[in-house]
Description:
With 428 residues, the chain is of the alpha+beta class. It contains 13 helices and 18 strands. The protein has a ten-stranded mixed β-sheet with strand order 3-2-1-4-7-9-8-12-13-11, sandwiched between helices. It has a two-stranded antiparallel sheet with strand order 5-6.
Amino acid sequence: MLMNKLEVIELFAGVGGFRVGLERASDQYKVVWSNQWEPSTKKQEASDIYVVRFGPQGHSNQDISTVAVKDIPDHDLLVGGFPCQDYSVARTLNQAEGLAGKKGVLWWDIHRILKGKKNKPGFIFLENVDRLLKSPAKQRGRDFAVMLASLSDLGYVVEWRVINAADYGMPQRRRRVFFMGYHKTTAIGQALLKEKGFEDWVLEDGVFAEAFPITTLGTPFSEFVIKGDLAEVSDKFNASKTAGTSPFENAGIMADRKVWTINTMPVYDGPRVTLGDIILPSSKVPKEFFVDAKQLPQWEYLKGRKSEMRTNKATGFTYHYTEGGMVFPDALDKPSRTIITAEGGATPSRFKHAIRTENGKLRRLTPIELERLNMFPDNHTAGASDGRRAFLMGNALVVGIIERAGAVLAARAVDAPVKKKRTAVVPA
């Protein structure tokens, strides 16, 4: 299908972060189908915003688990940021399919679509919280191992990287794991499967390596094989009682179930955007975003260091509670802290952003400023309430990461990877 366009489907689309990033990266991308459905609310604000921004053509506001694979168009690239859940699998009672993922776990809908497509997409590009590499707590790395094994069984070579957007000059400290898969029928996939080792790909030659340069911490790659069918991976991977850490480091690649992984650090010396760079002048900020002087003591308490006795209301148990202090107000000369879904509303909070304005007043961040921290266009979420706009940005990703990786992928999608001259990388 690779002709003039890379046809894309966007799952768990939210307000379209992947789409914004890809369309900024290259006119080679064309989103042909998207799905956004929020199970916990009757009002589908994210889907409504998506339609307003991109139009209704090819957009689905339906529970993805009820969408038949045949109703999803063939595509070159599948993208999405899906929830972090328990990705374990179990054997079915009738053994007809052999394995079944947990009901309601959205990863298995991605797997269902990939498995059900006769013409499988050549590429996948997914995002999740970085704890995916370490979950669950009692079997570190199992969930990611199940995912990698399932993708390998479908014919994909998969690379991953934990990326903090602020490490590459972007205005928010937001750490997420991104992984990209190349099907064995693509030029990239074919070339990678011929390789005997993947160190150069991970460190210098790969899509993530070009978009987000790194260096090692001096330790060698760890190599291991994910063995067994998916139920065995789910039951046995890293199941030793002494295995307290995940074998997956913050960068790596998997081919034919063999994993190469290494701990790395970012290398970047380009321009940097800070919180102060994106804020609006006070004259353009509605008065409701300014902190009432009467609430200031509560803000200071919640943000401050604590060492105090507390009593559990339910049990009456008394205990000593400690908590470190936070920078308050938020520093304007650095990238912002991570936006959370509870960012909206005037109620004082330890986790909401609060800044000191040029006239000395304290205020919260506006929806436009939250959009800018995620590198969306101004007023991308206009139409929803201020609180919901904050919630949507707390759920969103930093668009600049998708744009940079997408630009590299678009340039390579038809061609086999080109070996670059090996050079020494010096930490910034």
